[in-house]
């Protein structure tokens, strides 16, 4: 953590005025390229997404900005139930996030507190090792493993867990499972980092103060890990809510998500305005969630993510 | 208020746990968590094992089958028989390397500004970075597409690179800022006191100290870029990257060669990580 | 910092539930909420201004059509040179392939003509997506990376022609086509005189099922709505493939159907068929079907014929109400860098001996005359030659129908707004 004493402001009186001017200009010079790039290729596109959503037309005659706000109303009242895909995506994202926390917390806890220092890196690396394989390939492997004559299904049919001809695929369960699988490490890492920062003497202190194991866990470990959990929630929720890949590879007819709808509107039906409206709406909803997040947690915890 | 609440309340007294508590707690802690960890790691490794195994399985019409049909090295010996696979792979590597490089070049000064200076507009930069990290891929990708369409810009290599840099800057800045904040400025100031100009101070003192952070930031950016499917799929035009190429195969039956590439990359990456770990361990 | 200090510090933070909000921020990385919004506001404002200034519209694609109409195609072709290479975007498993994934026919072509072929069989997985991918480049007048691609007859085909995205093919450069093309593909309904295209393959869309997983026999589309097949049926997500099923069940000829026919068809699909549907697929259906994801699927004839050797229990049905017949066509984009090389391939393909070798691997229906005899006599593959899937008897062929035919954007928008909700599901 930075302590205030190392900051340059501590000594302005010693500096000459020219130096002060130089220091005043330097940060702008340093960040101009990044600001320009992010502004031009990230922020402006977000705005142009909004503008495209307010256009009308078709790809043949082109799209013209007509401030057609009713496109947003149509998302909820039109023949295609976009609201349903939105609600579904949020549900999948929230469920996946919840499952990920439940599974990732013990794993992070195990690595942080139950393992000697020399094994920590290795055990953590085993969790991270999935990143060495393209997530498209990993997700597609689940498709084969869980398919009708895939090895997992055949074992389960043999054990009479599944009926003949039944599979886990094409269900909300397989989609959420895929999300949990793909985003698991995003949850373990920030929680682990937060746990590593807990001073072990706090646990001793808790013991000294007659805290039993449960007490220590709920009153010391969990609160001090909260920032890590929040970071994990942010990463996993944001990633899963918009994801079109898991639902398209592992899903079925009743798992169509907002991510797929956006892709479909852009590339298949070429309704650019509808696609842009869906994307803007999704960003707005997540924006509200992010706002609440920033309010409760602050934004510098982002550093825990990496 | 019950007695229980009272006993939980911290009081002064002798430290250690009651001896009776220990025997019943210890065995559970020894077995439960390790087993759970092993279960999770198995779950995480299953598809990777499947990838490796299926890359050696005899395919049907050059598409893998989940049923074992016999061992073969054919796919490895004819790695490039599936058209476009090498091109897609090297496109991905090139874009990942380029976007990593550009984002470090742009991100390092920005991280310096954010960690070393107080200035108006810092809040704007911070919120941009926060937003950039937390915007979902589908929104980033589709907005970029809307933007490029509005500008009548042709999609391809350039647009992929532009957008990859745009999402990587935030990761690079965040990584480097953390590193720079943790470093303090005493050494740089010492260099200044000894007469070094700020620029010389930066190159002789700060840069060497932050170098591992730069490498980490570059690797992170590289990894984010090379595995990105969603964002790239909106702005790729007719350029194909490896994830897009692989995704095409999920729609029509995976070619074993794609799995071979996956396996080779995996093995190389694991070896490199292992070597790195070994080197780090030797270091005092 | 002593241990006590640390304890006190952390302990104090713990008291606040809103820890993050109450925590004194590290001056380096922190920011206040006020700044967050002021900042975001300023950036958004600047961004909005810039965007409004730069882009109030997305250019339409129709403008290029007029240019295409005015093109003198003979002169266009006369100005092209052979470059010794071209790239070819096709569907998967749609050309002969040896066990290592090489394509012998293309290799032979290269040996004979010196033209190298870059063949991408990952390129097309469904027509709409492929069109969506190439359209922006074509609209901008830029090469799409392919000099030849295969497009099914349907709306996207019409769009390619309407927008002037594809080159008219000079008959002088494809004598073999004029000589050897089957009667049925010389001037198909969707492309007068095959001006812009040459058929690559034709095929039929029917029903396939694993007879070991299904009770009873399936003979019609109506059978798929039986309660016992709940969640066991897969259909194509392609609107043309899907709409024709609803239309045929209602006794309507797809190619002459109207809006109210579409609504009735969509109604049947949504209310009768959809409850039994597990998933809508594009080309991935075959993989899923082979791995027994579903017992019953809408299917393309050649695919099923090809897997029957490995899956003897799989049956293919030409449904009683009727079934679809479609044509995949080779087309050359106007922006192609090597159009003459691609044209050379088209001409080369329309030779009985060449088309037969390819056909004997993909097992659909070749547009080239004499292929059946050639495969019977020269290649000697009775499995294909005697198959009713490849060569349905005439009473079955009488039930084959072309897709819904749409010629303008407004009609197409109506069509998609009626059928798209079926695919996207609820």
Note down, in words, how this protein is organized.
The complex is a heterotrimer of chains A (306), B (284) and C (426). Chain A is built from twelve helices and two strands, in the order αββααααααααααα. Chain A is flat, with a radius of gyration of 25 Å. By secondary structure, chain C is an alpha/beta fold. Chain C has two domains: 204 residues, Periplasmic binding protein-like II (D-Maltodextrin-Binding Protein, domain 2), CATH 3.40.190.10; 144 residues, D-Maltodextrin-Binding Protein, domain 2. In chain C, strands 2, 3, 4, 5, 6, 7, 8, 9, 10 and 11 form a ten-stranded mixed beta sheet that branches. In chain C, β2, α6 and β3 form a beta-alpha-beta unit. In chain C, α16 packs across α17. Chains in contact: A-B, A-C, B-C. The interface between A and B is large, with 102 and 110 residues.
Write the layout of secondary structure elements.
The complex is a heterotrimer of chains A (306), B (284) and C (426).
Chain A: H1 17-53, E1 55-58, E2 62-65, H2 70-77, H3 82-113, H4 117-128, H5 135-146, H6 151-158, H7 172-196, H8 200-208, H9 213-241, H10 245-250, H11 258-267, H12 272-297
Antiparallel strand pairs in A: 1-2
Helix pairs in contact in A: 1-12, 3-7, 3-9, 7-9, 8-9, 9-12, 11-12
Chain B: H1 3-8, H2 21-55, H3 74-77, H4 85-116, H5 122-134, H6 137-150, H7 157-183, H8 186-193, H9 198-226, H10 230-235, H11 242-250, H12 256-282
Helix pairs in contact in B: 2-12, 4-7, 4-9, 4-11, 5-7, 7-9, 8-9
Chain C: H1 3-15, H2 19-22, H3 33-54, E1 57-59, H4 63-70, H5 73-78, E2 85-91, H6 104-113, E3 116-124, H7 127-139, E4 148-152, H8 155-162, H9 175-180, H10 183-186, E5 198-210, E6 233-236, H11 239-249, H12 259-273, E7 277-281, H13 285-290, E8 296-300, H14 301-307, E9 314-317, E10 323-331, H15 339-349, H16 352-362, H17 371-379, H18 382-385, H19 394-397, E11 400-401, H20 409-424
Parallel strand pairs in C: 2-3, 2-4, 6-7, 6-8, 10-11
Antiparallel strand pairs in C: 4-10, 5-8, 5-9, 5-10
């Amino acid at each position: 953590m930075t302590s205030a004493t190392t900051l340059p402001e501590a000594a302005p009186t010693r500096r000459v005025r020219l130096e002060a001017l130089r220091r005043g200009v330097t940060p702008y010079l340093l960040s101009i390229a990044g600001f320009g790039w992010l502004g031009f290729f990230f922020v402006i596109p977000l705005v142009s997404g909004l503008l495209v959503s307010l256009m009308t037309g078709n790809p043949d005659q082109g799209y013209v900005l007509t401030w057609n706000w009713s496109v947003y109303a149509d998302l909820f009242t039109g023949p295609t139930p976009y609201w349903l895909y939105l609600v579904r995506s949020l549900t999948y994202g929230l469920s996946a996030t919840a499952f990920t926390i439940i599974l990732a917390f013990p794993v992070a806890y195990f690595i942080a507190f139950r393992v000697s220092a020399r094994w920590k890196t290795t055990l953590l690396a085993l969790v991270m090792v999935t990143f060495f394989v393209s997530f498209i390939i990993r997700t597609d492997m689940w498709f084969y493993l869980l398919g009708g004559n895939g090895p997992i299904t055949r074992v389960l049919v043999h054990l009479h867990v599944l009926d003949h001809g039944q599979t886990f695929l094409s269900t909300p369960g397989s989609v959420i499972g895929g999300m949990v699988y793909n985003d698991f490490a995003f949850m373990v890492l920030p929680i682990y980092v937060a746990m590593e920062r807990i001073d072990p003497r706090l646990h001793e202190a808790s013991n000294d103060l007659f805290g039993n194991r449960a007490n220590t866990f709920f009153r010391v470990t969990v609160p001090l890990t909260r920032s890590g959990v929040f970071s994990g929630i942010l990463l996993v929720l944001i990633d899963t809510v918009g994801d079109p890949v898991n639902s398209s590879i592992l899903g079925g007819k009743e798992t169509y998500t907002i991510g797929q709808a956006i892709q479909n509107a852009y590339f298949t039906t070429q309704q650019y305005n509808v696609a842009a409206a869906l994307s803007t709406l999704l960003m707005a909803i997540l924006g509200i969630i992010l706002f609440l997040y920033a309010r409760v947690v602050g934004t510098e915890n982002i550093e825990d993510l990496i | 208020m019950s007695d229980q609440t009272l006993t939980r309340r911290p009081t002064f007294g002798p430290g250690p746990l009651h001896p009776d508590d220990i025997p019943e707690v210890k065995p559970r802690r020894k077995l439960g968590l390790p087993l759970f960890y092993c279960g999770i790691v198995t779950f995480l490794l299953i598809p990777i094992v499947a990838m490796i195994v299926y890359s050696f399985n005899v395919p049907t019409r050059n598409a893998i089958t989940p049923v074992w049909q016999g061992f073969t090295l054919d796919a490895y010996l004819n790695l490039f028989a599936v058209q476009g696979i090498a091109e897609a792979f090297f496109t991905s590597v090139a874009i990942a390397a380029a976007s990593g490089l550009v984002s470090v070049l742009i991100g390092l000064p920005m991280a310096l500004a954010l960690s070393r200076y107080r200035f108006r507009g810092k809040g704007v930069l911070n919120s941009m970075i926060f937003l950039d990290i937390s915007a979902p891929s589908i929104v980033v990708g589709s907005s970029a597409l809307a933007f490029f369409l509005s500008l009548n810009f042709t999609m391809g290599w350039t647009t992929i690179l532009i957008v990859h840099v745009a999402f990587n800057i935030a990761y690079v800045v965040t990584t480097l800022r953390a590193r720079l904040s943790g470093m303090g400025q005493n050494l740089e100031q010492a260099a200044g006191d000894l007469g070094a100009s700020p620029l010389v101070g930066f190159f002789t003192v700060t840069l060497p100290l932050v170098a591992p952070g730069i490498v980490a930031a570059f690797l992170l950016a590289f990894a984010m870029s090379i595995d990105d499917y969603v964002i790239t799929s909106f702005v790729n035009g007719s350029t194909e990257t490896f994830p897009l190429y692989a995704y095409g195969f999920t729609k029509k039956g995976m070619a074993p060669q794609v799995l071979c590439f996956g396996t080779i990359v995996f093995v190389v990456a694991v070896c490199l990580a292992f070597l790195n770990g070994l080197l780090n361990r030797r270091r005092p | 910092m002593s241990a006590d200090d640390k304890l006190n510090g952390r302990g104090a933070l713990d008291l606040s539930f809103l820890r993050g909000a109450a925590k004194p921020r590290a001056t380096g990385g922190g920011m206040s909420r006020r700044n967050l919004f002021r900042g975001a506001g300023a950036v958004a404002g600047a961004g909005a201004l810039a965007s409004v200034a730069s882009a109030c519209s997305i250019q339409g694609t129709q403008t290029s059509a007029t240019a295409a109409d005015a093109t003198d195609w003979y002169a266009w072709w006369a100005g092209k040179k052979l470059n010794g290479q071209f790239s070819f975007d096709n569907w998967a498993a749609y050309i002969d392939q040896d066990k290592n994934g090489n394509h012998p026919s293309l290799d032979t072509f290269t040996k004979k003509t010196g033209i190298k072929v870059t063949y991408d069989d990952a390129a097309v997985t469904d027509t709409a997506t492929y069109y969506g991918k190439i359209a922006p480049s074509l609209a901008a007048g830029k090469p799409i990376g392919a000099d030849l691609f295969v497009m099914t007859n349907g709306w996207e085909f019409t769009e390619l022609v309407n927008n002037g995205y594809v080159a008219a093919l000079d008959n002088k450069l494809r004598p073999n086509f004029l000589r050897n093309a089957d009667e049925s593909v010389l001037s198909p309904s969707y492309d007068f005189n095959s001006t812009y295209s040459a058929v690559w393959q034709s095929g039929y869309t029917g029903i396939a099922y694993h007879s070991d997983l299904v009770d009873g026999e399936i003979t019609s589309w109506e059978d798929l709505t039986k309660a016992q097949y709940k969640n066991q049926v897969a259909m194509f997500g392609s609107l043309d493939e899907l709409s024709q099923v609803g239309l045929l069940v209602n006794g309507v000829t797809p190619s002459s159907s109207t809006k109210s026919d579409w609504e009735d068809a969509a109604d049947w699909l949504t209310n009768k068929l959809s409850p039994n549907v597990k998933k809508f697929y594009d080309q991935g259906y075959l993989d899923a079907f082979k791995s027994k994801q579903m017992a019953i699927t809408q299917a393309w004839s050649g695919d099923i014929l090809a897997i029957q050797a490995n899956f003897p229990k799989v049956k293919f049905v030409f449904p009683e109400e009727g079934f679809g017949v479609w044509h995949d066509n080779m087309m050359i984009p106007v922006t192609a860098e090597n159009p003459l090389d691609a044209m050379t391939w088209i001409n080369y393909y329309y030779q009985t001996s060449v088309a037969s070798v390819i056909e004997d691997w993909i097992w659909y229906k070749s547009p080239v005359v004499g292929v059946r005899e050639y495969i019977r006599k020269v290649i000697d593959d009775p499995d294909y030659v005697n198959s009713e899937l490849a060569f349905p008897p005439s009473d079955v062929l009488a039930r084959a129908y072309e897709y819904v035919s749409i010629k303008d954007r407004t009609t197409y928008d109506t069509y998609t707004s009626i059928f798209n909700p079926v695919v996207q599901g609820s």
